[in-house]
Write a structure and sequence with these properties.
With 180 residues, this protein is mainly beta. It has helices at residues 32-35, 147-151, and strands at residues 2-5, 11-14, 22-29, 38-40, 47-48, 59-62, 71-72, 77-79, 88-98, 104-114, 119-128, 133-143, 153-160, 165-178.
């Protein structure tokens, strides 16, 4: 309790309401694309990024209480149904894009609401002038603002405007901040 002025030169003790705010995080480290990168074989086509969660850096040791995972490694979909409206989710994608020609435009997307009313958010767009392997680390923050986002599935997508590119997924980090 804290003293609160009454306006008459006195104070009363009151309990201050606090919103319980918790956070948790998960790190999903992929091994499947280190052996066989995901080929972006058709220019302009969106491909779902895989993550088997079998890498040595995978952890759910710091998950939210009562929420074991927010990403299903067997289906490659995010599942936010164990969260609440008003929660926020931060996702950091770490991957390597190999291009085989000059002048490539890569797009990363987060598709949400799958199974209900799907919609896409643009995460990042990179332009590569040379053929090489390019490290890409991109972040996106979303909020669970409606039942479509809460109860629909989500997935990460990549596309390239040329043929011959491939993706090695290192992994993604997911942090959830919940409003108690």
């Amino acid at each position: 309790q804290i003293p609160v002025a009454t306006g008459t030169g006195t104070a009363v003790f009151q309990t201050v309401p606090f919103t319980a705010c918790e956070f948790g995080f998960w790190d999903y480290n992929d091994t499947s694309t280190s052996i066989t990168p995901l080929d972006l074989t058709v220019a302009g086509t969106e491909y779902q990024l895989p993550n088997n969660g079998l890498g040595v850096n995978t952890t759910n040791a710091y998950a939210l209480p009562g929420v074991s995972h927010v990403f299903n490694t067997s289906t490659n979909y995010f599942q936010f149904s164990n969260l609440k409206l008003g929660d926020t989710v931060d996702i950091r994608i770490d991957c390597e894009i190999t291009t085989t020609s000059a002048n490539n435009l890569l797009n990363l997307f987060l598709e949400l609401g799958i199974g209900l009313a799907p919609y896409k958010l643009n995460i990042d767009q990179k332009y590569f002038k040379t053929a090489a392997t390019h490290k890409v680390v991109a972040n996106i923050s979303i909020y669970i603002g409606n039942l479509t986002t809460l109860n629909g599935l989500g997935r990460l997508l990549a596309s390239c405007d040329t043929t011959g590119a491939s993706v090695k997924v290192n992994g993604w980090f997911v942090r959830v901040l919940t409003n108690g």
